[in-house]
Amino acid sequence: MPIRHLDTYLQERGLIHEAPLTSLKDTRIGIDAQQWFKTLLSHPNYKEPFVSVTGGAPLNTYQHMERELRLLEQHRIKPVFVFQGLPPTRRDRPFFLFPNSTDLLENPMLKLRTRDKGWEKYVSGDLEGAKNLFDQSSSVEPKDIFNQIHRLFRTRQVEYLVAPYLSWSQLVYLERHPKKHYIHSIYGSNELFLFDGVDKVILSINFERGLIKFASKKEILIDTGLTPEQFTDLGILSGFELSPSFPPFVERHEHTFKHAVDLIRRYQTGLSTVMAYADHPMVAKTGYLDQFCRSKCMIKFSLVTMAEEGKVMPLPIASPTSSSPIGIHDIPTDLHDVFSYKFPDEIYFQLCRAMISPTLLNVLATGLWVEQPPLCGGETDDYWSFVRESLTENPTSPRCVALSLIISPLHQFWQKKPISAIYYFDPHNNYTIPHASQTTVNLIEKISNWNVPAGVVEEELKRQNSSTIDISLCLGATSQSHLAGRTRTPRSTSQTNHKPLEKKDEVVANTIWRFLELRGYLHSNHQHTIQGKALFLGLKESKVNDKLQEPLLLVIEMLKMGCLHSNWFGGRTWTGTAHLGSEDDKRNMLLVMRVLSIVPLSFKPMSWQGPLSRDLLTFNSFTRSLTKSLRLLIESIVLSLVLRNDTRRSREDGMEVSLSLPFQNEANTGMGILFKGYADAMVCSQSEIEAETEIDKKEEMVKELKEDILVGAQDGFPMVRDVRAELNRGFRFWDAVMKVVRTLKEEKVVNNNLADGFERADVWLKPLRL
């Protein structure tokens, strides 16, 4: 959310100018990735209103991003994207929001209520009303498709970096660098005008018309009659994404930017303005004076990554703007209250190169893991216990272990810092995450013997006739005792001859091996556990091109966590659940729907056009949270390799490593919905089939019926690349899952009743196979 009412003011005062896109020819433009992505999602031609109820990422965003990058390239404009890093710390408790949080864009609980109303309209048949409400409740952020964007940037050789904190200040630094102008202009939101040394900012780019719109801070200052310092105060009082509006402005129903300008003129400074309203009930209640000072400090002393040194420094130190530059002694000593205590520079460097995302670092910085509600609302005890016990608070849970891996090599200040979780379903209480427990510490110490050199990795690639280092290759390399023995390699120390891991392939392979041991697929002697054996056998059942490695591992994880079954979550049925046939038929269909929905569907680049399922969205919340948690565990492993000197510390290939590791993307509900549509049509025709007594005719009738249904399904799901091929891929995944379940049952690892439920579903599914 940009500075409130500023865009309207600029428009009314004629301060927004147009210029041809060609005016940027042969220049480098710094782009705020957050603003670019938001603009892309809000474009009328690119909108995907059903993302909030199908889960996963937008289906056509990648194509539109590529199109705009291609247009910039055609105009000989070199983009440099800057992503948001760690958010500044906040004093307010999560889920207890400022008055202006009634804004739908800011309040996740309000989005949930809007989405619930959308479901009500969907059930009543008001599809257009539902579509509008679902669109309003969408919450897709760049972080949700972080890896997709980076993969596109790698393909098109686009420059990028992740800021240590604010993308705005990093862009300002790049433009006003004292020796090298890394960029010649900035495209972003109007918050950029808050910073010193900024003049022109490109506010929008219309690729269809080949035009840019921009404004000049110098002109704004002349028009308002304010100094740069006063304008910064004005912007903070008006409110923007990271700073709440001055409470008296919120209460004023017809508040305008001009009114805020007049108030600053009257009191001269923002601080004086706030002091003048010190007795205002909401100013006192929200502690707005403290918030104003924190926001001012956040802007004036914003931390940036310096280009040459790679150090993180306050903006006025990194890039002075006056003849009397600010010295280090002028920097507030409590800057850590705004931006967190400082991490080692190498952590910021790996963040900058996108080896890791900001999520875990933010948890460590704030001491809080804030659990936001999932798309389905997360209303059931099943989901609450899953998030708490399986993902977060258990000493061996992925989130707890991920934090421990990052913290253990750091200074004791970080090691002793308590970290707790705050959940949307119990916002008043903090729950300890035991990252320093003996169980967790012992677990992460076990993986220190994974330092397999490049020679062994290359041998395995040849032996397995593979070109990719992935879960399957790493399991294959440990499938026999003599193979596993080669991988037991001590850390690089003065007492050993082993060198730190150097090549990208070494880092990727050892990260996956460490992950597999942490999650219980490999023993400490590097041989397969029962779960590892089941996963390996399941993968041998599947085709390489089906890309089922991650979904199959998710199945085993969800079986361990008790959330993959045919029971109703919360003891209730939801829209779009299995509803045809007997009770057994419903449960069989429900189990198959859920299992198949773990597999990502192959889509054409177009928005979702098909039925919806709240039941599958509820299940998708488990899948999505688990996928994200496992990805964070992967990131923590690779960062710990760097921090512990198990690999070369000054790595420039952070993004390459990151894009080679698993769990980059999350599946939506598509495959499950597609199967349900197909299965419903088959079940509805069951009486017609049973009426035919001759076996040959019945078989022919079934064959023709399936063909007719597939044709109809392709029309009903136009965004699916190939309905037949996708359903067959889903059925092959089911076969691999059955191999896993049967292996686990033989080893008495999985509950017999649960395994029998899979067997019944397998029998039920057979007549539906293509």
TrEMBL record:
Residues 332-425 form the Post-transcriptional regulator MKT1 N-terminal domain. Residues 514-766 form the Post-transcriptional regulator MKT1 C-terminal domain. InterPro entries: MKT1_C (IPR022039), MKT1_H3TH (IPR037314), MKT1_N (IPR022040), PIN-like_dom_sf (IPR029060), XPG/Rad2 (IPR006084), XPG_DNA_repair_N (IPR006085). GO terms for biological process: regulation of translation. Residues 1-90 form the XPG N-terminal domain. Belongs to the XPG/RAD2 endonuclease family. This is XPG N-terminal domain-containing protein.
